[in-house]
Amino acid sequence: MAKITIDRERCKGCLLCISFCPKGLISVDKGLNQRGAKPVKFSLQANLNEGGIPLKVGNETSECLGCAMCAIICPDCCIEVYK
Length: 83
Prior knowledge:
Helix content: 10-25%
Number of helices: 2
Number of domains: 1
Shape: globular
């Protein structure tokens, strides 16, 4: 399973990564960063059931694909993808 890390202090909250994630695993964080922007966060935990197992939609799970679309679209290079 792939995962991403987001540098929340560099994130300006443009939200482009949210719209490009095919699995919808990125969401807006509740807190502000030092710039006063609401950064994004990798929200894989929101897509797990009570037992910690990824939710299934049809034959697909809610796990990160590692496609790196979020990292490619990020104008500030705040996102790193790990496979």
